[in-house]
Amino acid sequence: MATLAPTAHLQLPFFDAAHQQLAADLSVWAAKQQVDEQDDRQACREWVRRLGQAGWLRHCVPAAFGGARAQLDSRTLVILRETLAFYSPLADFAFAMQGLGSGAITLAGTAAQKSRYLPAVAGGELIAAFALSEEQAGSDAGAMSTSATLGPSGTVTLHGSKTWISNGGMADYYCVFAKTDAQAGTRGITAFIVDAATPGLDASEHIAVMAPHPLATLHFDQCQLPADAQLGELHGGFKLAMRTLDIFRASVAAAALGMARRALALAVDYAQARPMFGQRLADFQLTQAKLGEMVALVDAGAMLTYRAAWLRDCVGTEGAQQARDYTAAAAMAKMVATENAQRVIDMALQMHGGMGVRVGSKIESLYRDIRALRIYEGATEVQLLILGKSLLRAASSPTQ
Ligand SMILES: Cc1cc2nc3c(=O)[nH]c(=O)nc-3n(C[C@H](O)[C@H](O)[C@H](O)COP(=O)(O)OP(=O)(O)OC[C@H]3O[C@@H](n4cnc5c(N)ncnc54)[C@H](O)[C@@H]3O)c2cc1C
Fold this sequence. Notes:
The chain is of the alpha+beta class. It has helices at 17-32, 40-53, 74-87, 89-108, 111-122, 237-273, 285-315, 320-351, 362-369, 380-396; strands at residues 128-131, 147-150, 156-166, 173-179, 189-195, 201-206, 215-225, 230-231, 275-276, 279-280.
């Protein structure tokens, strides 16, 4: 029988009965899925199809456009990503990209854009992607050089390249962020919806990374976009990208948490089964201390993740102070949960001895799966800066 994701933490006051039911139903569903993940692109398509058919992708979009709830619920996203990542990090990736690739449309799309894209994303019929990064503009996204030039009739000419784009080469559309005013820095960026079949778009340059994850570089060669491709306000693209990332930041922490919980479960099972020096590995105090450290690291990441999601759902981000509090809480959750998960998975691998590095073992793949989470959607160093600046701001104006 497959190892089941733990559920005791769902009794914490962060969650309600609907969250608990969702987690229980999802865990039963996810434990039953068998997807061959040797070809990550094919597997990702299959996960999107299954997640769509089973209704899980409905949690990525609002109810008015085929979603499950009136508004996106951060705690639901956290439960979904934590549980999916426990069973399959690629399933989590497929789910997360449907949310990230449609989030800007949910936040700023016209009624026509929402009707065209969101129900199909929720059903798994369209694969979504989010294209912000460039070779010279990763952490410093405002340094992007891809340009969007507006013509007299409202049409747009898109030119430049985006890289590290998840679902690149397999998405049906991309939310692309481009400079509409080259001199205005982050205030000169606008978002556009670019259909994959747009002439001049080449997404064939795939990027191979250490864990299954479909990625590509996108080249836009004077792509002509219709006037209704603009997403949100002119020059409002950077803010829109940050608002989109903000929704999903706590859920990246949750994905790391799911992987860490799986590693911990594997370590406990292995330590109890492995005979050593006439005892079991688990009987040694050194092993017990390691397991103790691992469970504390997992719980620390969990509390911060759930707090961030709860803040967004139950306190909100409308007021300036609320928005600041949530941003800091999400940054802390993302940093601590991903860093702690890396340590937990490394400790679990060490406990497995040679089996831990054997290609094809679950712990070996988790060791590769976790690494990129400390880099994308804001590297750990970026989260540290957010936290440090937030603390200094609060100290210099204590009434805020
Ligand atoms: C698997 C994967 C999937 C991705 N998916 C997408 C996607 O779907 N869409 C998209 O747009 N992008 C995506 N990205 C890109 C990702 O967001 C960038 O890799 C990330 O923003 C870091 O940018 P960079 O790689 O250019 O590194 P750089 O910006 O060059 O940063 C390098 C390192 O410098 C350090 N650093 C950063 N800022 C500071 C600072 N202020 N002070 C000191 N040190 C600092 C950090 O350690 C950082 O890792 C993905 C990346 C990966 C690896």
